[in-house]
Amino acid sequence: MTAPEPATHISLPGLIRLQADARALKLPAARPVRSRQAGLQRSPRRGRGMAFAEVRQYQPGDDIRSIDWRVTARRQSPHTKLYEEERERPVLLLCDLGPSLFFASTGAYKQVRCAQLAGILSWLALGSGDQVGGIVFNGHELTVQRPARRKKSVLRLLDTVARQQRISRSDGESPHQPTGTRADLDTALQEARRVAHTGSRIFVISDFLNITPDTSRLLGSLARHNTVSALRVIDPLELKLPDSGHFAIAGDDGPVWFDSSNPRFQQAYAEKVRQHSEALGECFRTAGVQPASVMTSDQPALVLQTLLGPRGHIG
Asked: Residue ranges of the DUF58 domain (predicted)?
């Protein structure tokens, strides 16, 4: 019997089970690409270099800049160095579990979808031989884990994701209650600038409801030397209200009721959605990041299947 899908929280065992979804995406193992000549073509992967492989006897067409003069002198015949393209790279996941993500009108909470996306991408990256690290933040706490190529590192990252969900919900406070601490998106982006190595693959997983004038600048700074994707998790109710009905949403001072059949309220809400959508689109365009959307009603693995390259390759 299949376990029910998590709606409000996903545990560490649930995040570990996402290995099956990662395997289903059929990510190929990273393999070195042997090159006879170095420097003739640009690598499509920013920040990658060429690692030394071996020395062999010079052959016509080899780049003379790759001749190993010490071996040539010792053996009294031209020898050249061979290189292989470096495939290993850091993958950094920024996982937002903040107050605005404790919401869903369908499917699962946005924070569950963020956690699932982070989990699948972690297992995909580890399976490809890449280093995996992350920054997890929930409004109360921000945890940084530097990229490493070890299963233990992935498990520690996913344990942080599971634990920070519990912290946000188990302290007796409303998830909307301000804490006076800074553990928000902009702070996480600042930390990512400090942690990320040139050529990293970075995924920012958030609902991006609380962007600021600094968000675009911080994203752009990351995207200047790395490949950055913004995975936006959205609930359908955030895009369009029902035509009629009385609804309550959680607020700092308790529930806030509204009547969605009120034309003026509908118009004001639609205008707010439009303004935020335009601001967010401009933020992503200015920063030069690759945006994609995941609905709370979506299955994250199916969405990633369409976003990633052939056979689940994290491009």
From this structure: 54-278
